[in-house]
Design brief:
Length: 482
C-alpha cells in the first residue's frame, strides 16, 4: 500500500510540473503541495524506469542565475611591448581617475630612450584606479590601471541626494516688534566680531611666496594720509606653474626630472665627443638658382605632386649624390673594421618639445625631389603628433641638420653616433659676394660638415662638401653626373 501511494504522489508531481510548464490552472498546481508536505526525501523515492522517464529528467535539471551588472567589471590596462633594445620606460598619465575613456583612446604614454609609446584603452568605460604614479618606471606586461567597463563618468559620481534636497520646512514667523516698554537693555560688552575665513595651510604655500609676503609684512609706522593715496598695496608673486615657459621673478627654484629621451640624447652627444675625432670644414652656397627654380616651377610642382618644393629636397638629393662619389663618408668604424654601406639612408634632424629626434629617409639614392619632400613631410607630421616609432629612427648612414629654420647663421654640428659625418645647414642671408670681378648681392648660406677624422681624411671631406655645393647651385651637374 505504501508503494502504491508513493507512485501516485510521484506521478501527480510529474503531471503538475508538466501542467505548470504549459500554463496549467492554479487548481491543478495546488496538488504539488502533497509531496512538499511528505517527510520522505526525494532521493529515497525509487521510481521505475518505465513510464517515468520525464520525471527522471526533471529531477536532474539544475538552474543558474547570473548577475546583470556588467558595468562593475574591471579591465586591466597592460603596458605594451617595446622595441627589442628597450626594456623599460617612464610613465606619463594623460587621464585621471574618474575620466571617461573610449576604446583605443590614449590614456598614458611610456617615455623610452628613443620614443614615446602610447598606451590605448582596451575598452570603453571610466578609469577606476591608477596603479602607478606619474613618472614611475614600468616594464612591458605591467598592469598600469583598471577601467570600469561600460560605465560613464556620471555613474562614478554619488547618486543625487533626492531626499536631502527636499523642500526645506517653511521658516518660522518673524517675532512681533518689541513694544517701547519692552526695549532690550543695553549690552555690557560689544558683540564679538564675525570669525575670519580659514587661511590656506602654510605647507601649501611655496617658500618663496611666504618669504616674499613676510618681507611685505614688516611692521612700519602708519603712512600719512597723503601717502595712502599713492597706489594699491603690493601684490605677492607666486612661482610659475610651468617653469619651462615663464619666469615670474620670485627667486625660487624648481627641480624637474629629465625625461628618458633627453637623457639618452645627452648621453649620445657626449659619447660622440669622447669617441670621435671630430673636425669641421665649412663652405658657402649661393642659393640663387634654387630660389629661382622654386619661383618658376612651384605652382606646377604643387599641382602635380600636391606638395611644395623646399630647400631640404635639394640638399638631401645633393648629399646622396656626393655620398656615392665619396663612399668613405657613408662608412663607419666598428671595432677594428670599417663597414662600407651599399645604400644611402639619410637621417633628418627634427626638433620636438621632448628633444631632438632623427627619423630616417631610406634609399635616398633612388628618390627624386618629390619623393624626398613627401617623405620629409610624413616624418615631420609623425614627429609633430608624437607618433614616431623606433623603426622610423633606426639606422641611417648620414645626417642633415637644418638650423636655418630657427635663423641660425653659423654652427658646428655634432656627429650622430654611430655615423661618421653630419651636414649642417644654416639660414639664407643676403651678402655681398664677388661674381666675375663684380660685387653683387646674393642669397648665401653657410654649410658645415663635421666628420670623424679617424676615418675620413681632409681631402675626402672637402671634396664631399664641394660636391654638395656644386649640386645645389647647379643641379644640372648632378643630373648629368659631371
Amino acid at each position: 500500500m505504501y508503494g502504491v501511494t508513493t507512485k501516485r504522489a510521484v506521478a501527480r508531481l510529474a503531471l503538475n510540473r508538466s501542467l505548470a510548464a504549459s500554463g496549467a490552472s492554479g487548481h491543478q498546481a495546488k496538488n504539488t503541495s502533497v509531496l512538499a508536505r511528505t517527510s520522505l526525501p526525494l532521493a529515497s523515492l525509487k521510481v521505475p524506469q518505465q513510464g517515468f522517464g520525464v520525471l527522471g529528467l526533471g529531477c536532474n535539471q539544475r538552474f543558474f542565475r547570473t548577475s546583470a551588472k556588467l558595468a562593475e567589471e574591471l579591465k586591466g590596462v597592460t603596458c605594451p611591448a617595446f622595441a627589442e633594445s628597450i626594456s623599460e620606460g617612464d610613465l606619463r598619465w594623460e587621464k585621471q581617475v574618474g575620466d571617461q575613456v573610449s576604446e583605443d583612446e590614449v590614456i598614458c604614454e611610456v617615455e623610452t630612450d628613443k620614443t614615446s609609446v602610447p598606451v590605448p584603452s582596451p575598452v570603453s568605460g571610466v578609469i577606476h584606479e591608477l596603479l602607478y604614479e606619474n613618472g614611475s618606471t614600468v616594464k612591458p606586461g605591467f598592469i598600469l590601471a583598471r577601467i570600469k567597463v561600460g560605465a560613464s563618468s556620471g555613474g562614478s559620481s554619488p547618486p543625487p541626494k533626492a531626499k536631502a534636497e527636499a523642500a526645506p520646512p517653511p521658516p518660522p514667523p518673524p517675532p512681533p516688534p518689541p513694544t517701547p516698554q519692552a526695549a532690550s537693555p543695553i549690552p555690557s560688552a560689544p558683540p564679538a566680531a564675525p570669525p575670519l575665513p580659514p587661511a590656506a595651510p602654510m605647507a601649501s604655500i611655496p617658500v618663496a611666496a611666504i618669504r616674499h609676503a613676510q618681507a611685505l609684512d614688516v611692521p612700519q609706522a602708519p603712512p600719512p594720509p597723503s601717502l595712502a593715496l599713492r597706489g594699491p598695496a603690493p601684490v605677492v608673486k607666486m612661482p610659475p606653474v610651468d617653469p619651462t615657459k615663464e619666469i615670474s621673478g620670485t627667486r625660487s627654484e624648481q627641480r624637474i626630472k629629465m625625461n628618458r629621451m633627453r637623457q639618452k640624447i645627452a648621453q649620445r652627444l657626449k659619447e660622440a665627443q669622447n669617441v670621435n675625432a671630430m673636425l669641421t670644414t665649412f663652405n658657402e652656397i649661393d642659393m640663387t638658382s634654387v630660389m629661382q627654380l622654386r619661383k618658376e616651377h612651384q605652382d606646377a610642382f604643387v599641382k602635380r605632386h600636391g606638395i611644395k618644393v623646399g630647400f631640404m629636397s635639394a640638399f638631401v638629393k645633393a648629399s646622396a649624390y656626393a655620398l656615392r662619389q665619396q663612399p668613405v663618408v657613408n662608412a663607419v668604424i666598428d671595432g677594428g673594421d670599417i663597414v662600407y654601406r651599399d645604400y644611402v639612408d639619410i637621417s633628418v634632424a627634427v626638433a620636438t618639445p621632448k628633444g631632438l629626434v632623427v627619423p630616417v629617409l631610406r634609399n635616398v639614392h633612388d628618390m627624386d625631389y618629390a619623393e624626398i619632400e613627401k617623405g620629409i613631410a610624413q616624418l615631420g607630421e609623425k614627429a609633430k603628433h608624437n607618433q614616431l616609432s623606433v623603426e622610423d629612427m633606426d639606422g641611417g648612414t648620414f645626417t642633415i641638420s637644418n638650423g636655418g629654420v630657427f635663423g641660425s647663421m653659423f654652427g658646428t654640428p655634432i656627429i650622430n653616433m654611430p655615423q661618421s659625418a653630419i651636414l649642417g645647414m644654416h639660414g639664407v642671408f643676403e651678402r655681398p659676394v664677388v661674381r666675375e670681378k663684380q660685387i653683387v648681392i646674393r642669397p648665401m648660406m653657410y654649410v658645415a660638415l663635421t666628420y670623424d677624422h679617424r676615418l675620413i681624411d681632409g681631402r675626402e671631406a672637402v671634396t664631399f662638401l664641394r660636391t654638395v655645393k656644386r649640386a645645389v647651385e647647379d643641379p644640372r651637374s648632378m643630373f648629368l653626373d659631371l
